[in-house]
Design goal:
By secondary structure, this protein is mostly helical. It has seven helices and two strands, in the order H-H-E-E-H-H-H-H-H. The protein is globular, with a radius of gyration of 15 Å. The protein starts with 5 loop residues before the first helix and ends with a helix.
Length: 151
């Protein structure tokens, strides 16, 4: 990976921070957390109190973790990625992908993993790696549950 342009990286971090603040206003915690022990399943953007306890996810980081996940979809080049309010953020995430991997339209499936998500969370929002990895495992658990429901 080449050295990242500090100005573009600062711009990306500022965009991510604004996304988190906007998300906090538009989706308050009471809409993110349900008092229940069963996994969320079909509602992957919400959490149960049981999941928060199982994965040791602090409530004050939920919005940031969700924004990093939405950013991750853009960063890896996923089609129909989750929308972001700041229209400049997807292009900055594409720039970041190009700086890290060269001019690729999307990351190879082998690179779409927890390590990459953890790196992105640390890079754009200073999310501690252990916290980002626990959230990623929670998302993977939800996706596995959804696949089980579909079969």
């Amino acid at each position: 990976m080449t050295d990242l342009d500090p100005e573009k990286l600062a711009q990306l971090r500022a965009c991510a921070a604004r996304e988190v603040e906007t998300y906090k206003i538009n989706v308050p915690l009471r809409d993110l957390v349900r008092m229940d022990t069963k996994p969320v399943g079909k509602r992957p953007w919400t959490f149960t109190s049981g999941e928060l306890e199982t994965f040791n996810l602090p409530v004050d980081h939920l919005h940031a973790l969700l924004i990093v996940y939405a950013a991750f979809e853009h960063y890896i080049g996923k089609r129909h990625a989750a929308p972001l309010d700041d229209q400049s953020m997807p292009s900055l995430l594409t720039w970041l992908r190009h700086m890290r991997y060269g001019l690729v339209d999307a990351l190879p499936q082998a690179k779409v993993n927890m390590d990459e998500y953890v790196w992105l969370g640390d890079t754009i929002l200073d999310i501690p790696p252990d916290l980002a990895s626990r959230f990623y495992l929670k998302r993977e658990s939800n996706l596995a549950a959804l696949k089980g429901m579909a079969s």
